[in-house]
Inverse folding.
């Protein structure tokens, strides 16, 4: 397969249009391209394809850079930091495209087309009714200078079309899909410059990759059919052709590809919800790429384990359960101080000063998102609501049990082991029968972190008050032991 880079000079890129907030599909495509570059010690660049001016307000550009950085992707060249092959915003490169248009026109490989949208629609309708695939029939291919001048004088603004060779087959290698063959006669001459002077996607994208010395293009499968046209443009201009790999699109729950246009869940939404970038990286890196390591990997290990031949062709679906699995792993990979930094914006003022680290140590295995930690802070330091099964666990034991629980707690000076040992001896309860009602009364839940770690946070005073409140609930006498 054509592949002219060695791992030493590999250069890949992410080239989004700043037309909305990045979604997980964009993020995964960016991640694969970045992992390929970083894994090979190559170069990674960011280029903004902002030629759709109506849909590219500045807020999206800023958000895009911010989201990528948060996600953990860095770039060696880009709109914010420049580089040897800039500028990195396509709207700043119009003069560059102009030179290449002129070259194609003067060598006869591109020509002005004056057909109106109505003309083209009519042509397509005829082709369709004849059972043919619609393509440009070449009406303006052979206009002479006089005919062109006449149309210009009438005020018609032409598009510029690429002249596709009439015969032959183009072989397009793809790192994911293998080789595909295209009959050139089927392609039809295509627009490379719109009538308003703006570059067509195919053109600017292909020219920029070549001029920026990108030799590996990993992008979404939505661009698969653009590739033959792009290779034709590059060949006509004598520019190098990169290796292409098209990644299966990430689909939403409705089975449709995620798209900025249709408001797919964005990276920034997940960030706001408290998902960690490392969780998203581990999740997305494995979505359509096989790693032999099944555990949590840091960015360096993800890059080292990345291999183009491990990319799958199967479509991938966004799966919240998988994301939560990696979120759990990512939280556990942090040390206590880092967990606190992550929680602090939501928890400041909710955890008494000095108890931050013991609190983190106690609850960290039980939290996926900062909201979970907020709930545990309320259960430790506030007034926890009792869940229905906790009420059941509390009322399932006699009021005497609760009196003894209070007395033994006081006698043990708040020491968890001494307390529960004494209570076990006095009540005859052990194991779950002992700990479940205690947990229910102290936290309002029947599950959660180790009680031994929670008790010092709750403190003796609050614990006594909660045991006292438990004693005041009418018991459902199902047992006679204390
Ligand atoms: N659902 C998806 N799954 C994987 N990659 C995607 C998906 N959608 C887009 N991409 C890829 O993300 C990169 C950036 O694309 P682009 O900025 O055009 O995003 P988009 O979501 O297609 O936006 P729009 O809806 O504005 O077309 C491209 O390589 C594109 O192929
Ligand atoms: Zn025409």
């Amino acid at each position: 397969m054509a592949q002219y880079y060695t791992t030493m000079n590999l250069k890949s890129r992410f080239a989004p249009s700043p037309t909305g907030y990045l979604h997980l599909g964009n993020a995964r495509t960016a991640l694969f391209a970045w992992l390929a570059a970083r894994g090979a010690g190559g170069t990674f660049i960011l280029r903004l394809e902002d030629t759709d001016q109506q849909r590219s307000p500045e807020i999206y550009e800023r958000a895009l850079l911010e989201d990528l950085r948060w996600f953990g992707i860095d770039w060696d060249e880009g709109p914010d930091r420049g580089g040897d092959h800039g500028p990195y915003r396509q709207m700043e490169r119009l003069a560059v495209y102009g030179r290449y248009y002129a070259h194609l026109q003067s060598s006869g490989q591109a020509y002005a087309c004056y057909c109106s949208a109505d003309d083209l629609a009519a042509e397509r309708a005829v082709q369709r009714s004849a059972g043919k695939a619609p393509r440009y029939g070449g009406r303006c291919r052979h206009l002479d200078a006089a005919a062109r001048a006449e149309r210009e004088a009438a005020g018609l603004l032409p598009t510029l079309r690429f002249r596709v060779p009439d015969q032959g087959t183009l072989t397009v290698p793809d790192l994911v899909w293998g080789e595909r063959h295209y009959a050139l006669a089927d392609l039809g001459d295509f627009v490379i410059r719109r009538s308003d002077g703006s570059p067509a996607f195919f053109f600017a994208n292909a020219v920029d990759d070549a001029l920026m010395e990108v030799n590996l293009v990993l992008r979404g499968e939505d661009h698969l059919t653009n590739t033959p046209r792009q290779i034709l443009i590059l060949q006509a201009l004598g520019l190098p052709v990169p290796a292409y790999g098209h990644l299966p699109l990430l689909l939403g729950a409705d089975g449709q590809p995620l798209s900025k246009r249709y408001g797919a869940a964005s990276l920034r939404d997940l960030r706001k919800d408290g998902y960690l970038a490392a969780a998203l990286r581990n999740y997305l890196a494995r979505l359509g790429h096989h790693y032999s390591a099944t555990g949590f990997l840091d960015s360096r290990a993800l890059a080292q384990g990345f291999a183009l031949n491990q990319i799958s062709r199967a479509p991938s679906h966004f799966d919240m359960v998988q994301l939560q699995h990696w979120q759990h792993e990512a939280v556990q990979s942090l040390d206590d101080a880092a967990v606190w930094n992550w929680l602090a914006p939501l928890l400041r003022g909710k955890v008494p000063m000095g108890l931050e680290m013991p609190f983190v140590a106690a609850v960290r295995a039980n939290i996926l998102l900062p909201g979970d930690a907020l709930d545990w802070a309320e259960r430790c330091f506030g007034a926890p609501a009792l869940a229905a099964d906790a009420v059941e666990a509390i009322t399932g034991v006699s009021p005497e049990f609760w009196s003894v629980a209070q007395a033994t707690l006081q006698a043990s000076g708040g020491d968890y082991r001494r307390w529960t040992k004494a209570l076990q001896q006095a009540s005859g309860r052990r194991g779950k029968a002992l700990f479940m009602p205690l947990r229910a009364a102290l936290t309002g839940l029947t599950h959660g972190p180790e009680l031994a770690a929670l008790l010092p946070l709750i403190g003796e005073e609050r614990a006594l008050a909660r045991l006292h409140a438990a004693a005041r609930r009418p018991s459902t006498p199902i047992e006679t032991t204390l």
Q: What stands out?
A: Residues 113-115, 139-140 surround zinc ion (ligand 2) (CB under 6 Å). The longest strand covers residues 216-220. Confidence is low (pLDDT under 50) at residues 478-482. The longest helix spans residues 451-471.
